[in-house]
Design a protein that fits this description.
β1 and β2 form a beta hairpin. Helix content is about 65%, strand content about 5%. The chain folds into two domains: about 80 residues, Winged helix-like DNA-binding domain superfamily/Winged helix DNA-binding domain (Arc Repressor Mutant, subunit A); about 140 residues, Four Helix Bundle (Hemerythrin (Met), subunit A) (Up-down Bundle). α4 crosses α7, α4 packs antiparallel against α9 and α5 runs antiparallel to α6. By secondary structure, it is mainly alpha-helical. It is built from nine helices and two strands, in the order αααββαααααα.
Length: about 250
């Protein structure tokens, strides 16, 4: 497992986890494994062996099994009859499709959200971009991923479409692990920051058509850059490019 042996034990006492009394152990394991996949700690095709994970995390094997089944439902894990649970692999065409779906859904939500946008939404989005800029200066890829998701979510929040946002979370989870890997190699957060700033400016001006066009261009541009990067990586070629990530 890529970096998997670096996971800290959860140290679950007989009475339950301190601070997690109301959260089942399997859910805590689920959160940690999901985060590891999304951060690229468990690469595509990596086996996730239940016994080894249970020993590393210090939890019952059943908790790991339940977490892996939930990750299977989320599309992050596949069960292979000969190997067991492995981190799922997406083809380049599947990744392209996911980003295209994101572009369609996010543009629709943004079109609905802009007329309902309040000053506090814009202030929160601006604050996230300031944190994003600081993360870029630090080279903090993990923080960048979280802030990127937060920025997009804030802009879409006024649309008040919780079911659609749930679909978007699924799409983000499917692509974020590849985006994080891409960012670690290309260090292209600065261009992504500039695109976010231009998008926020258009939203603040309530330029609905222009803002939606910027958003679609931002997402599909990320898809192209990521596809080119993964194509070279999977063929064993150099991993550098100048693309952005959405």
């Amino acid at each position: 497992m890529a970096r998997g042996d670096g996971m800290a034990p959860l140290d679950v006492p007989p009475g339950g986890m301190p601070g997690f009394e109301r959260k089942p152990v399997s859910m805590v394991v689920l959160d940690q494994l999901r985060d590891g996949i999304l951060r690229g700690e468990h690469l595509e095709g990596t086996p996730l062996r239940q016994d080894a994970l249970a020993a590393q995390l210090g939890v019952p094997r059943l908790a790991v099994r339940e977490a892996l089944r939930q990750l299977e439902a989320e599309g992050l894990v596949t069960f292979n009859p000969h190997v067991g649970a492995v981190v799922s692999t997406l083809s380049l065409e599947e990744i392209k499709e996911l980003f295209e779906l994101r572009a369609l859904i996010e543009a629709d939500l943004l079109q609905r959200a802009i007329p309902l946008m309040r000053a506090d939404h814009l202030q929160r989005a601006h604050a996230v971009l300031e944190e994003f800029a600081a993360a870029c200066r630090r080279g903090d890829i993990e923080a960048w991923g979280t802030l990127n998701r937060d920025f997009h979510s804030i802009l879409l929040e006024p649309a008040a479409q919780p079911l659609t946002m749930g679909v978007l979370r699924y799409l983000h989870n499917q692509t974020n692990r590849y985006t994080s890997l891409h960012q670690m190699v290309t260090r292209s957060q600065v261009s992504a920051l500039a695109e976010h700033e231009a998008l926020l400016d258009a939203v603040a001006r309530r330029e609905v058509r222009h803002a939606c066009a910027l958003l679609v261009s931002h997402i599909l541009g990320a898809a192209r850059a990521l596809s080119e990067f993964l194509h070279r990586q999977r063929r064993g070629g150099p991993g550098r490019d100048a693309g952005e990530a959405g």
